[in-house]
Amino acid sequence: MKIGIIGTGIIATAVVKGFCSKKIEHEFFLSPRNAEKAFALAAEFDEATVCKSNQSVADKADWVFICLHKKDFAALHEIKFRRDHKIVNMSAEMRLPDLKNIVGETQLLAHVIPLPFIAAGFGPLLVYPEIREVGELFTPISDVYYANRQGDVHTLQIVTGLMSAYYALLEEVVRFTDEHGLEHNESVRFTCSLFSSLCRRASETPDCDLMELANEMTPGGYNEQAMNELMGNGAINAWRMVLDRLMQRLQDSKSATQAE
C-alpha cells in the first residue's frame, strides 16, 4: 500500500514507526515539511522516502495522511488531490467538513486520532466515521475504536489530554518510594505494573462498574484512608474539573473558528 504523509511531526513519525517496526509492507512518501524528522525516518526505514514537495507526496500515494499543525493548513490549498485518494485526517484542529472543502471529492475521508504508543504497536486509536477500511488499516498496530458522532471524537480527544498528568502522578508515587530507599528503576517497574494491572482488571471485567471496583476495600484499611483523604482534598474531583475546562477550551476554539 502506498501511503503519503503531509506533515512529518511527532504523531506522523509514531505512525510510520509503528507500521515499519511491525514489518507491514507499506510504502511511505514523506513531505519535506519538518525535514529533520522526515529524513531521520527515511534513514531508519527502507520503506520511507522523502519527496521534493507535498504535491509529489499526493501524486505517489493511494492513501494520504494529513498531519499538519493548524498554522500550516494553508499548505493544503496548494495540493491537487485525486478522486481516488483515501484521505485520513490526523490533525486535531481540522474538521472533516472543512477538509472536504479543501480536498474535494475523494474515495473516502476519515478523522483518526492516534497516540504516541502507536510507534510500539499498541494503544487506542479512534476512527470517525465508522469506515471499516480505515480501521482495518490500523488494526495491526493499535486497538481501533469507532466514533458514531463528531462530538464523540472531541470528547475522547479531551480525555487524551490527561496523559501528561497521569505520568506526573506516577512520578509522585515513585518519588515517594525513592525517598524511602527503594531502588529507582525497580520502583518504576513496580509502580507501572501496579497501575497497568488496575487498568487491565477494569478492562477485562464484564460490564465493568468502576466505582464498584473502587469500593472493593477493607474498612479502615489503607485504600479506604487514601480514597477518603484524596476525595476530602478535592484531588479526585480535580481531574473532572480539568476535563470540563479542556472541553470549554475546545468549544471556545470552535466558536472562534466559525466566527472567522
What does this structure look like?
The protein is α/β, with parallel strands linked by helices and 260 residues long. It folds into 2 domains: 2-148, Rossmann fold (3-Layer(aba) Sandwich); 162-254, ProC C-terminal domain-like (ProC C-terminal domain-like fold). It is built from 11 helices and 8 strands. It has helices spanning 10-21, 35-44, 54-60, 96-103, 132-138, 150-159, 163-179, 184-203, 210-214, 222-232, 235-259; strands at 2-6, 27-30, 48-50, 63-66, 86-89, 108-113, 124-128, 143-146. An 8-stranded mixed beta sheet has the order 3-2-1-4-5-6-7-8, sandwiched between helices. Helix 6 packs across helix 11. It starts with a strand and ends with a helix. The mean pLDDT is 93.
What keywords describe this structure?
single chain; 260 residues; alpha/beta; Rossmann fold; ProC C-terminal domain-like fold; eight-stranded mixed sheet; 11 helices; 51% helix; 13% strand
